[in-house]
Amino acid sequence: MLDIGGANAILIRGDSSTMIQTRTADATFSSIESLYSLQGKTAVVQFIDEHSFLIPLLLEAREKIDVYFPNPEVSLEVITDPEAEGDYQLLASVSTNLSAEDAYRRLKEFDRAWWLDTLGRSQGLLCISINLR
Q1: Beta partners for 31?
Q2: Do 55 and 32 contact (CB within 8 A), yes or no?
Q3: C-beta separation of 58 from 91 below 8 A
Q4: In sequence order, which residues have a C-beta less than 8 Å from that of residue 28 and are 6 or more positions away?
Q5: Nearest to 76 by CA among 48, 110, 117
């Protein structure tokens, strides 16, 4: 039996690094699901799995979003560019009760303070937008 962060796992065949990687991935997806609502969960999970470098960025983004937008509901969805066949992105949609003016002002602050400097890390695969409730 192997103890992994307080969780016990039984290794039947295979190496322990595979088991640890699987547990880590499961824990990471649980973290993502606790922070974001997943629209089209299968597609989102597959996209994140294929582009795992986005995981730390998604975790960091949620912290930053919470600073600029009070009590947001944030969803993730895989979207396609209608002008570029096969071009997919992950959309993080921030739903807020703020007025349009205040939401736009805060989005500009968010962009200047964090997102524009971080955008390159997304490799063009993550888009963050505002949705007024």
Answers
A1: none
A2: yes
A3: no
A4: 55
A5: 48
Amino acid identity, position 84: A
For the whole model, what pTM was predicted? 0.78
The three-state secondary structure class of 79 is: strand
pLDDT tens digits for range 51-79? 999 999 999 999 999 999 999 999 999 99
Residue given tokens 């997102």 in the structure block: 115
Q: What is the set of domains in the chain, with CATH numbers? A: 1-35 (no CATH), 36-132 (3.30.70)
Strand-pair category, 88-96 with 37-39: unpaired
State how far the Cα of 130 lies from the Cα of 106, in Å rounded to an integer: 10
User: Does residue 55 contact residue 36 with C-beta atoms inside 8 Å?
Assistant: no
| DSSP letter assigned to residue 10 | -
Query: Residue 9 is encoded by which pair of tokens?
Result: 């796992």
